[in-house]
Amino acid sequence: MESRMDKYLPMAIDNRRLSIIVFSLFFSWLLAFPFEGRILYALADVHNISPHSFVFGTMAAHFVGLLLSGAFVRTMRTAKKLMLFSIVFCVVVSCVFFFPPSFLWTAALLAAAFMVGCCVAAWGYYFKGYTPKNERIKTMADGLICSNILMILLNMVAIHVSPYAGLGFSMLLLVMAFLFALRLPKEEESVSPLPFEQRENHVGKVGPLAFLCLFIVVITINSGLMYQVQGPAFAHLEWLTSWYWAIPYIIALFIMRNLPRTTSRVYILYVAIAMIGFSFIAFLVLDRSWVSYLVVNTLMLGACGVYDLFWWSILGEMLDLYKNPARIMGIGLSANVLGVMLGGLIGNGITASSGHNQNPTMLALGVVCITLVLLPPLHKHLTTQLKSHIYLTTLPEMPTQEQTQLMVNLSVAQKLTVREGEIATLLLKGKTYRMIAGELHVSENTVKTHVKNIYSKTGVQSRSELMNLLLDMQPSETIKL
Fold this sequence. Notes:
Number of strands: 2
Strand order of the largest sheet: 1-2
Mean pLDDT: 79
Strand content: under 5%
Largest sheet: 2 strands, antiparallel
């Protein structure tokens, strides 16, 4: 099957970009359909039923899928199989929604949400394996930007053309995700099991992950409150909300992705907290005009973009501290879903009991204060483990001459041959075995043999560990935040 697809898909796509494409395609389906998506709401409106009866169960199923994925996904081969099965499964169950509502709708949503949760967590193997450690923030930003752009397109089709057209378009994206996923490697080129003597040190680092998850839950409670409070209040501006909703989020991601590495991002986190607070204050004092919506949504979603990229990228770097990327991705993302669920339940409960928007708003401001209290100790916990992360410390961009000198130093220190040095350089640039073989005009087996020798001489087990070794050789010029 993979060899047949080669003639339909461009060969120039490396595994990093390929993983971003697959993520963007199936994640856009998740955002636009089962996860409180506009397609689901539009379909519910057609049949005059409440979508809220599906929402909590769907998010709960997604939460369970994220948590359980790591229990049975322990290799990249298994991760690829699960992703392919999940995508096909979601295409099949989407067909149910072309028919009138029945118990099959609920069953299909629960099953699809569970499977896509497994799929997102399993993608962690490719996130870790084919993005160098110091580039994961860019990979995550690219994935989130592309998936949200696709989500906007799906929303506009569902709202302004037809819910069924939006559903069909979303299924087409899933089919494309499947076709690209077929090209993903199933051999673990760079994700190798840790040596036995290193496992205890890596597995035991639970504290930073637990604290990060607590922070994710707290910060995303505001997202759940936003869904239940701000969203319905501006529902009459469908012509605007259908496309502008995620625009500030995308812009924030793009800005954060392209900031120079010397820019201190920790201060931006505090600015984003202030933006969330001002967003709820603006919602409390302004009217429900389109101008008010632009102010409230820009502040809230811009801040969400900053914080989502923060914890997604931190989570990506934490993958190097544990054996199973799917388990760590699942745990971290389940914290996000839990926060959204709690915010939604709290917002629903308060609004239903009081009939006013002030109480959820005041609660949201309280959550902002809690977040401000949590941020300094979170930063302290993470810097002990992730000293090279761009949000925690800043590394100056290395000129080409310095990069070359580091590779020379590595080759001399580890007694690499000239050919091994060339392959190590290409490996650290994210090249696959096939791409390296083509560039150096040798066979893939020859490349694999050289890589094995490189890992043996340097005492590492994967591409990411080799990158860490290279970064450790860099002069100590980091700036603590």
